[in-house]
Amino acid sequence: MQLQLSFATLLAGVLFAFSTVQDAVARPTRRNSGLVTLPLKRVPRAEGVPPTVYLQQHINRAHKRLARMKGREVPSDHQLRQNIERRMLALEEDPLSKRFNRQGVKKNARSTNRIGLAGAAHNSRSLQLKQKKGGNAGGQAASTAATTGDNGTAGTGSEIEANGVPSGVEAANAPTASNSLGLNIEGQDVGYLATIQMGTPPQDFLILMDSGSADLWVGSESCTSTAGGGCGSHTFLGTASSSTFQDSGKQFAVTYGTGNVAGTIITDNIAVAGLNLTGHQFGVADSESDDFADNSVPFDGLMGLAQSTLSEQGVPTPPESLASAGLISDAITSFKISREADDLNDGEITFGGLDSTKFDSSTLTTFNNVNADGFWEGAMDSVTVDGTDTQLTGRTAILDTGTTLIVAPPADATAVHQLIQGSASDGQGGFTVPCTTNASVALSFGNTAFAIDPRDIAFQPVDPNDPTGDCISGISSGEIGAATEWLVGDVFLKNAYFSVDVGKNAISLAKLV
């Protein structure tokens, strides 16, 4: 009986398990009008969560994202919980009650694969949050506004370290591109966030950046948690903090895979990398599920960077508004995502163009967005492993910064792994590969092949004490979607410069330098 109780407690903790990201803002650098870049910063993964459980959380959330993207039935919470239970029961460590000891992590810490995708079925989003990692600050911290907990009470969530960044956050370097801000990179290369300013006087808000959704929101000053109480240690927006805040009274609601928010559409001034939008329309959440409201959640809101046809609020996205106002030349958003293992902290998000210093211009390829709903989806010409063609043709891939792994149809994932020496199926949708693999998996778009670093294929050791043994593969399989649809996340995107253009309805990729 004691074992059952421990298991139940443990399962509850793991199902809610992942984490904190916080701000360490680099101020924008501006070199010319029409191009804006934000620095990207890094945050770590949760400690003590077995890699196979960590993998399953990624897979679960990726499946939810893909289902919502394609308007198909979303897997039930019961099905997803059973997936986690099977992973846990397969573990042989003892005692069970100690297996997931995560001292210092709040009960509602988030799991991986964070951000939301617009749902064609119910116009909802699949929020997939990932565990963060701490680190060093690069550039100038910009948290000038006081962060409070429970809408006015001193926050008890993340502590600020001596370097001026929140505990558990590794800041991006100072941005090098025109008009730039950096992106935080969550541990194990799973998520991205940047700081923007809102209100009068301007306050800093730490925002998750997601290419798979289209709504911008932060918590309101009257925000309450569906679990009771206020909305935790976050920065809020309303009439008390902003003299330019105007509430339209029009309601909005967004449902994510692991949480939901509801509130009203407002207008207020915002600044993105130093570019000022006066009277921009976006949402403030009067109600947040504990997935957002808990003190352990380090971010203040979300910014969707797909096309506004996906917006629950029915308003333009910030890049679209920046372009309409003439502050950037085109509604373009470009990502340079850094890799945790490289320890470069050079991630940036650029608005209005592409930063040519980040990629080899001779490799730049642009192709049509084939998704009619507003996601960023392109035709994938081929998939190769060490130059050997898998014969997978006629595939499309949704390129999504809000998904950590690559999720392929089961037959496709099997075909890829059959060409990776030493790989094996785990029987639950995942695969393992040797941690020492040198296999080069490449996805081709626009007749250009983009190789994935073998370190990204060997996503994480199955046994943390055996880094040269078997690793979880960065490519998993999903039962959701047609046999030709892939969901391609950060495992691939950190190997390429990634840019999307709303005006041309086009996607661009280039090889990094």
Essential attributes:
513 residues; alpha+beta; 14-stranded mixed β-sheet; five-stranded mixed β-sheet; 9 helices; 15% helix; 31% strand; globular; disordered N terminus
Oligomer state equals: single chain
Roughly what is the average pLDDT, rounded to an integer?
78
Beta strands, count: 29
Count of DSSP helices?
A: 9
Structural class: alpha+beta
Alpha-carbon Rg, integer:
21 Å
Strand count, sense and barrel status of the largest sheet are: 14 strands, mixed
Helix fraction, binned, reads 10-25%
Q: Give the N-terminus to C-terminus distance in angstroms.
A: 57 Å
Give a nutshell description of this structure.
Helices cover 15% and strands 31% of the residues. By secondary structure, the protein is α+β, with helices and mostly antiparallel strands.
